[in-house]
């Protein structure tokens, strides 16, 4: 039982130590402290007596359920904190002219782009563009 409590405390410390979303990438939540993992604890259930299994099974399964929830909560907290920092640092200068809307800039239609490319390919092969039918 002390292994389970110790593991949970170490996992909680590891989860709470993550300062931002990027710190999850190299470590990941599956890396468990001191080489002991929840799956290793689950594997020991088969070797226990029925009485020990009744006592330890719910504790280990509870830990297996609590860890992903704690990780999800921490990641959500970190995501919200990053958004809050971003919103606090970004500012819009209302005295500057408004940017031009994308519709006013204009673009070549995709079909026209393809037709121009096909025409260029055939022109490179020696064909000429005809006047039409």
Q: Your description of this structure?
A:
α1 (about 1-15) runs parallel beside α4 (about 50-90). The protein is mainly alpha-helical and about 130 residues long. Helices cover about 65% and strands about 0% of the residues. The chain has helices at about 1-15, 25, 40-45, 50-90, 100-105, 110-125. The chain has a domain at about 1-90. It has six helices and no strands.
Shape: elongated
Please, what is the average pLDDT?
80
In the predicted model, the low-confidence regions spanning at least 5 consecutive residues are none
Between the first and last Cα atoms, what is the distance in angstroms?
88 Å
Rg: 30 Å
What is the SS-derived class?
mainly alpha
| Proportion of residues in helical segments | 55-70%
Q: Describe the largest sheet.
A: none
By DSSP (H or I, 4+ residues per run), the number of helices equals 6
Q: Proportion of β residues?
A: under 5%
Written as H for each helix and E for each strand, in order along the chain, the element string is HHHHHH
Extended strand count: 0
């Amino acid at each position: 039982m002390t292994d389970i409590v110790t593991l949970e405390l170490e996992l909680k410390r590891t989860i709470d130590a993550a300062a931002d979303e990027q710190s999850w990438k190299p470590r990941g939540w599956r890396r468990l402290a001191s080489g002991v993992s929840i799956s290793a604890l689950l594997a020991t259930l088969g070797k226990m007596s029925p009485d020990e299994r009744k006592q330890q099974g719910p504790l280990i399964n509870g830990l297996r359920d609590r860890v992903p929830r704690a990780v999800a909560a921490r990641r959500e907290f970190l995501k919200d904190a990053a958004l809050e920092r971003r919103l606090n640092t970004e500012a819009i200068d209302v005295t500057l002219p408004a940017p031009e809307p994308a519709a006013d800039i204009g673009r070549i239609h995709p079909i026209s782009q393809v037709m121009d490319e096909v025409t260029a390919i055939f022109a490179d092969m020696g064909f000429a563009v005809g006047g039409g039918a």
